[in-house]
Amino acid sequence: MRNGEVLEVSKSSVKHKLVFAYYITGHGFGHATRVVEVARHLIAAGHDVHLVTGAPEFVFTSEIQSPRLFIRKVLLDCGAVQADALTVDRLASLQKYSETAVAPRASILATEVEWLNSIKADLVISDVVPVACRAAADAGIRSVCVTNFSWDFIYAEYVMVAGYHHRSIVWQIAEDYSHCEFLIRLPGYCPMPAFRDVIDVPLVVRRLHKSRTEVRKELGIGEDVKLVIFNFGGQPAGWNLKEEYLPAGWLCLVCGASANQELPSNFIRLAKDAYTPDLMAASDCMLGKIGYGTVSEALAYRLPFVFVRRDYFNEEPFLRNMLEYYQGGVEMIRRDLLTGHWAAYLERAISLKPCYEGGINGGEVAARILQDTAIGKNYASDKLSGARRLRDAIVLGYQMQRAPGRDADIPEWYALAEDEFGLRTGSPSAEISEKSSLSTTYVQEFEILHGDHHGLPDTMNFLRSLARLDTEFDLGKNPEKRKMRERIAAAGIFNWEEDIFVARAPGRLDVMGGIADYSGSMVLQMPIREACHVAVQRTHPNKQKIWKHAQARQLAKGQEITPILQIVSYGSELSNRGPTFDMDIADLMDGEQPMSYDKAQKFFAQDPSQKWAAYVAGTILVLMTELGVRFDDGISILVSSAVPEGKGVSSSAALEVASMSALAAAHGLNITPRDLALLCQKVENHIVGAPCGVMDQMTSACGEANKLLAMVCQPAEVLGLVTIPNHIRFWGLDSGIRHSIGGADYGSVRIGSFMGRKMIKYIASSFSRSSSGAKPSQQINGINPDDIEEDGFELFEDESSLDYLCNLAPHRYESIYSKRLPESILGETFLEKYSGHNDSVTVIDPECSYGVKAPTCHPIYENFRVKAFKALLPAESSNDQLSTLGELMYQCHHSYGACGLGSDGTDRLVQLVQEIQHSKRSKSENGTLFGAKITGGGSGGSVCVIGRNCLRSSEQILEIQQRYKAATGYMPFIFEGSSPGAGKFGYLKIRRRFHPTQN
């Protein structure tokens, strides 16, 4: 179906009246407003439309006055629950959905089947209520979905935060959608793997009733007045709009203002039932949050849109990219929205020239397709079964990262954006085949005053990107090419007359040790090829180039120019975060002292789209706090990371280490790699708020290429670098399931292990107190004191002050403590008996039940496995050696699963390795792959595979990659190769050899 094709829905096309049951999700007005257009055309063709909705009736009746419209006020799903106008509460969304759609599911289905039969529905339409599709199937009625996103995709990320508790929600939603015959897909769509038969239609937008001139005349606003429509669908509680928020000569139309909210004279309150399309067409720009309704109508009426990001709603990046692709969007920082620094954004918006020229008759087109379907036309194919759609949906539904090369339907406008991101220096696909050419063409544009690029292709590519910033990405020099905001922003922060400091830090592959690091285990970690580059420039405030909105913010404060921190992060669109961040460096101070870590954590967490900046700006605060460094110059930072996020290869540690390394170099600080890693751990633990151990930062800072960093995490003692034998090779395979170290499961397991340590110390203490000759006559915890030798009491005394869980020998754990630890315990019960668990970076929830035995057992045995692994590595090459190393990895993997840190995807990958290892062909070839395990924090991410260093092993890794894709629809990324840590790389101090000519 071509987007511009116009189809009439006429009464003559069918011989009798049809009955449509149209279900509307409870999330936002955007769904209701687009349903209005489709329903209007169906009613105009002579059909009955029954709307099942929780939205106010006026949304529909203001556009459709017809006896053929029936409104049934029922809410069958809750959408995304919002804590405020800009913030989605992920856990509350899942809990509310459980209450609304899961708990009463049986009665909902029975009621809907009965109702559908009572109205004699010919077709069920869903936008995009999952249970409607299942109810239609149970009633024997065909169903079609009309949407730009599906709830399995939206809720998938929420499930990763909630852990296993709500996983069944996504599975159930995907299964419900699989009963739908096909999808009518709207522009700006997300990947929707539950649907395999798809028809694309143009934008669905409401029609205009009045002209711009008519609306302005009714409002008494002349053409010389600049008008912005404030369209939020709800405003932050207690928020007062102020006159100074608008530039002189501007007025603002306010949608959704409460009746008791006082508005200044340059703000005009609109009635709740005001018809916003006419008001949008009469305005010069719009300020609001992104949703389908606002974006589609802004594009249709070519209205520049100043938007503020919402948190945790995964539909938004796709709509945002479409908006910006057609040059219709300006992003406003939430901080500036709430503090009223609007002027710079509004003035930028009215300079835009939105260029959307596609069709806007999607309502008419969709109505015709629905009518034809109701009278028996078949748009669906039989090539893919519902079971196959469901299987794909489950795996792809959890695949939340938006990265080049994923196997999902991506619209042309989004694919173009991804192709451009593929050019970024941080992209894993940005390989450089001709190193010498890069060295001569781009490296020579900079004078290297200190350091060496070590011939690393990604470093030379990063220098190349710096050299191109103000040339290829100059709007004036290449106007026909759509520009990436990130490049434009980066080009505007560097002063080419000043020195730039560049640092590089790799991600890591967790070979052995993983989550046992916070319990003091030995770990073996390999720095990977993919790395993060950070460029830092310090400039006197009077010479610093700052963005217009930052300049306007300082002028509004009535102060002299003070040092500003400006950060640009490449690849932001691929992970739904803001591409830029800026703040006054003075804001990191609280009077004469640096801001507290707790206060900083709250500061960065208040806008989740910019929370990533905590990893970078947090390094400045840690240097202030721990080393007493004062920052009197402005700081400009460019971040470009090829370490993929959410894959369990420590993208956050690479970012922290690279940032602190570059900042230290720029400010003349001499920090050892070990100390730098410990400082970076403080950033992650106390400012970001992720309870990680230290192995990630240590590997990124202290690792060396093609060697395993061996260290004991008590707290961070490097034992040395273990050369990987020539006959052994390690690979990483990404499962496609997003891993988050801040997730509930990781934190719960960590808490459980610290609880176990506290219990072990308590048991041991009860015996050590009796070691001075006054042995009790009764058993303690099931042990008769008379059976204990004197030196046994000494062991108990040592164990009563156990500093790290991993210092407990496995045989002692098995013989004394294992059977005395509970499988799990309620937080409240633990606190009543033990008062606390002595972990400074996690907090026990009294109402939560924590596993104890498995999280306690894992690090004790993992420490033993790591020591055995390290001892076996240098042994003579043999199948026995490789098989034993592999077996240790398998044991580690299954121990993760016992802790609750497994995942479907990583289990499947490990199973595929096992299948290949034990196949007849592998046995006849003396084996090539020998073991695999989940890495890092678990609950998704990647697996590490060990094998023989030969061509056949690489072929088998590719075979696993293809088999995983065939089973799940997702093509795993392969991590192979290694590179030096930040300490080995050092830093580059560079200066531009010449100043680029200007037009």
Question: Would you give an account of this structure?
Answer:
By secondary structure, this protein is α/β, with parallel strands linked by helices. It is 40% helix and 17% strand. It has 35 helices and 32 strands. Helix 7 packs antiparallel against helix 15 and helix 22 (613-627) crosses helix 23 (651-666). It is globular, with a radius of gyration of 30 Å. Residues 1-7, 384-441 and 472-483 have low confidence and may be disordered.
Low-confidence stretches: 1-7, 384-441, 472-483
Oligomer: single chain
Number of helices: 35
- Taking the alpha carbons of the first and last residues, their distance comes to 45 Å
Percent range for β-strand residues: 15-25%
Which structural class should the secondary elements be placed in?
alpha/beta
Largest sheet: 9 strands, mixed
Rg, rounded, reads 30 Å
Mean pLDDT: 86
Task: Give the structure's gist in a few sentences.
InterPro entries: Galk_glycosyltransferase, GalKase_N, GHMP_kinase_C_sf, GHMP_kinase_L-arabinokinase, GHMP_kinase_N_dom, Ribosomal_Su5_D2-typ_SF, Ribsml_uS5_D2-typ_fold_subgr. GO terms for molecular function: ATP binding. This protein is an alpha/beta fold and 999 residues long.
List keywords for this structure.
globular, alpha/beta, single chain, disordered N terminus, 999 residues, 7-stranded parallel sheet, 40% helix
